[in-house]
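S1.2 Input.
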Amino acid sequence: MYVTSQDAGGARLSRVRRPAQSQFILGLTASVLALAAGGAAGAQAPAHAPAPAPAPAQVDAAEVRRQIEALRAEQARIAELQTRTEASIRALEASVGIAPPPASGPGPDPMKDINPIARDAASAAPPPVPAPQQSAPPSRFAIAGDLRVRAQRDSSNDHAPDRHSGQVRGRLGITYAVNDVVSVGTRIVTGDYNDPNSVDVQLSNFDNKFQTSLDLAYAKLDYGSTQFYGGKIPQPFVRTELVWDGDVTPQGISANYKLPLADGSAFKANALYFVIDEQAAGPDSTMAGAQFVYESPTLGPWKFDTAAAYYHYSLGSTAGADAGDFRTNLRKPNGSYLSQFHLGDLIVGASYSGFGERWPLRIVGDYVHNFGAATDADTGYGLDVLLGRASKVGDWRVGYGYAVAETDAVLSAFSQDNTSLATNYRQHMLSADYVIYPGTSINATWAHYKPKNAYDTPAFDPRDWLDRFRVALLVTF
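S1.3 Output.
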């Protein structure tokens, strides 16, 4: 008879004999095949074949799918982590200048072309981390300057012709902070370098070029409450022009100390060793000075200050001096100074803010006595009153000053040069300032003065009141 069997090629018909022995062999063969295929999913026994042996327990298909999905999720997480790691490596390589490796192999050795010592040091240190983006630090350089153009008229009581003249003054200063303690500074100015108390250039001399020079060249050490200067240095003292002209910059060393107090007041101490004239063979000319300052706390609208100083000049040499340095001080027949100069100087000031921000009031009195004078012409004093400020556009400031200086009350080489008399004068001065633009102002000054006595300055007629009127344009930057 015909039966069907199934193999890899599909169903087919076979014609077989069915004696008892053949039937037994056929059943045994079917049982073995069923046992061999029992573990495969979806395997089926041939149709009409004898019943196979019992198969092992079947696997849960849902659990298998769950495990497969978990493995796939882990594989995706690992791939994402690898991608982020590669990006971080590329960023670090770019920050230190290492080229990324080519697709075909590793990149070049970044240490190959440097010397072995540098290579070993670099390999021992961790790679630098890029600094976060931040704003540029403030410059260690500071530049400031000014330019003044001035017209001047000098007149007397018909004993001499009027004189009309013009002056220009230019100053440019630069400072550089080497570190948090040390800084250096210098300033270029116009004017005759032989004149310590003026940097103005007279508009004259058939249009010759202006002279320029350095009037500051110093190093500064800043220790918080104390500053030290050395070289051609800024003036360290609280002062008025009765004793120190504003253009005088000493040469030597100085120190400034400030101690703030709990009530808002402050104590200050200033000192200077001034090398005036040094000689290789012979005595030198020097000055040692000290000043103590007290600033009061604010007392309602008032604030007060006082400064007491002593300046001891030792004028052993005058080889470097000229007529402009001696000016109106008395001299011996050999040309040296008649007097010694041991100056005691007391300044008292008061500030009042009751008129409003635009109209501060400042009153300053100065008294000086020369304990080394050879005559009784040894005293000077002055009073200055200023009302208003001169810092913003539209500001006005007006002032009045009165001063008397006897012939040897001060060393005229370094005192004021606002008029043609450095000492032996009685002087009134009016001034006004107006700010027309930012950093730009105009000034008008009138000085009315005469000799104090008739015999110490014979070139001047003591009957004459002299007048000097100035108008100036000042630009600061």
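S1.4 Remarks. The longest helix spans residues 61-95.
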